Every structure is written in structure tokens, then in C-alpha cells.
Amino acid sequence: MHEPRDSDPGAGFDEPGASPPGVAAEGDGSVGYRGVTACHAVGISYRQLDYWARTTLVVPSVRDASGSGTQRLYSFRDLVVLKVVKRLLDAGVSLQNIRKAIEALRSRGVEDLAGITLISDGTTVYECRSPEEVVDLLQGGQGVFGIAIGGAFKEIQGSLSHLPAEPATSGPVEPAADPVGDELAARRARRRAG
Questions:
Q1: Average pLDDT for residues 167-189, to the nearest whole number?
Q2: DSSP 68-111
Q3: pLDDT value of position 29
Q4: Buried residues in 67-94 as b, exposed as e (16+ CB within 10 A)
Q5: Strand order across the 117-120 sheet
Q6: What is the pLDDT of residue 182?
């Protein structure tokens, strides 16, 4: 990802206390969102989500899958990044360029992400932190479309208002037991136990 020439790193939401409302509670890692919830919030298929996780494009930061029966848990920040990936793909940006842009965004905190607008000409993705940078890029003929990440925040927050979240746990989570009882699964578990 490229930054415009006259970058002002202090612009936008980088100032303390300037994050969008509700983001601190959801973005602090205290809750996570399962894959199905992430798909509904972002507007992608589970197959896309699984592919992006397996190819390390967007890996869940709360909990990754660690075998059969475990669930990935995505943070609020992960959902925003997923939304950005979807929008860049929809705009025709190559997966290789999206990967570069996402790698640059990974190191940012939630507050930093909220103040960034991504502008692209279809091949290169530029990072803008102020309205002046956006105007400079557009006047230079470099931008074709833009993605205000703060807008993606609001969309995700609206989607999550009616979707379930679960507490983020630090240890491994055992698969949920089938209340009816699966005889085949019980046999496998006994065989593995010894």
C-alpha cells in the first residue's frame, strides 16, 4: 500500500479519545464473533471466509481453528478488515494488491483504522489519513474509488447489533457436546483416549 506524498499522521481518528462510538468495547478483544456471524456482518460466503483464513489473508485474531470441531472467533477489527477486503475485491483490485494493503493495515489499532480512507486506481491502493490527501490523489488522477474505513465500522456495528457475540476465552475451547449423544463420536473419543 502506498501513502500519498504529504502524509499527516496526526489527522483523523489518531488522536486519543477520537475513536467511533462503541468501537472500544467491541474492538478490545473481550468478545469474538463466529464465522457464520462474521459472514452475515460482512456480506460474504462462508467459503470465502474459510479460504481467506486458510490462505492467511485475514486470520481471526481472537481464536483460530485448531482442528475438527473448533470454531474461529473474529474480533471487531477483523470484521472491518474483512469488509475492506470484500469492497476491494468488488472493485476489481487483484488479490495480490489486496494482500499488500491488508498487511499494511494489520499493524494498525482500531482507532488508527477508523481514520483511514483507501483510494485505488484499480491496481495500486493508496492510504489517506486526511481529506486533503484524498483531494490531492483525486486531483492527480490517481484515484478511481475510495473506501472510508470509518464507514465500514458503522456498517459492521449496525450489522452486529442483531447478531450474536461470545466471550473471548484465552484457552482452547472444547467442541460442544451433542445433547442427544453421537455413538460414533463417543467411540472415536474412547479410542483416542487409549
A1: 57
A2: TT---EE-HHHHHHHHHHHHHHHTT--HHHHHHHHHHHHTS-HH
A3: 55
A4: eeeebbbbbbbbbbbbbbbbbbeebebe
A5: 125-128, 117-120, 145-148
A6: 60
